[in-house]
Structure formats: C-alpha cells, structure tokens
Amino acid sequence: MAYLTQLHDNLDKASDQHEALAAVFEEFANFVKDCIQTPSIADHTITAALHLDHGLFTTKFAGRIVSFVFTSSLEKSGNLIGNVTCYLKKEFPEPKQIEFGGFTFDEQGYTNINVPNSNETIHIANDLGTLLMAFHFIHDSLSQ
Predict the structure, then answer these.
(1) Bridge partner residues of 104 (DSSP)
(2) SS3 88
(3) What pTM does this model have?
(4) How many helices (H) does the chain have, and how many strands (E)?
(5) What are residue 25's phi and psi, to 5 degrees?
(6) Are the C-beta atoms of 115 and 122 separated by less than 8 Å?
(7) 3-state DSSP call for residue 7?
(8) Which residues, other chains included, contact 101 with Cβ-Cβ below 8 Å and sequence gap of 6+?
C-alpha cells in the first residue's frame, strides 16, 4: 500500500510540473506569434499559428512549415522537463514530418542551449531568448 501512495504522490507532482511546463511553452508560443506579427520586429514574411490545445505551434517562412511540438518527460531526478521538438512539414513525394532539432527547458524557462559566445543558457521566457530560439530553428529549416 505504501508503494501505491508513493506512486499517487509522484503522479500528482508530475501533473503539477507538466502544467507549469505547458504554461512556459504557451508563453513561448504566444510571444513568438506576437513578435512575428509586430511589423517593427518582424518585417519579413514569417507567419505563426497557435495550436496550443494540441501542444504545438507552427511557423511558415520561405515555403516551409515548421512545427514546434511540446511534450514533457521524466528525468532521472524524478522531475519532469519540457521538450520542444521541431519538425519540418514535407508534402512531396508523400506527406511527412521530418524531425530536425529541438531543446529541453525547465519550469523557469531555462533551456539546454547556450547563448552564442557565452556560458549562459537561453531562457525562452524573455524577449531575446524567445526570439533567438524561434528564429534559430526557422533558419535551420532552410537547410532541410
């Protein structure tokens, strides 16, 4: 019975952590969309569409659709971590999603990716980090 209680407590903790991670991802997605729609920030032809009820958002640029897909997974420490996997949508010769990158993040929005030329990690819940991550993967999609 003690194991059942422990398992229940672990699931409660995981549920709370997943909700916190999902909120960080939603903040990331909303900020990217808002910036892309602001002419003074994004004077190019990137568009974004939110599908947060499915745990993702998409961007479109230069004929490429990139999906940023959120999941969470359990670390060895027993805590959940957020995962964002990036997929490029291809229609020809057959429809498919090609995984080409991604990153992890914690409940505060700190990722496993370093700021270029720095030892600091990118934070997806602030202006610079948010745009840097989104633009990085949109740019990477151009070589796919």
Answers:
(1) 83
(2) strand
(3) 0.90
(4) 2, 7
(5) -60, -45
(6) yes
(7) helix
(8) 85, 86, 137, 140
**Distances 105 to 21, 22, 84 between C-alpha atoms, Å:** 8, 11, 8
Q: What percent of the chain has pLDDT over 90?
A: 62
Q: Is the pLDDT of residue 125 over 90?
A: no
pLDDT at 126: 73
Per-residue b or e along 110-137, where b marks 16 or more CB atoms closer than 10 Å to that residue's CB: bbebeeeeeeebbbbbeeebbbbbbbbb
Burial class from Cβ neighbours inside 10 Å (0-12, 13-18, 19+) for residue 70 reads buried
pLDDT tens digit sequence for 18-74:
999 999 999 999 999 988 887 666 556 889 999 999 999 999 999 999 999 999 999
CB atoms within 10 A of CB 93: 6
Take residue 98 and report the two structure tokens written for it. Answer: 């090609």
- Cα gap 125→130, rounded to integer Å: 6
Q: Which residue has the tokens 């990158």?
A: 101
The CA distance from 34 to 122, in Å, is: 19
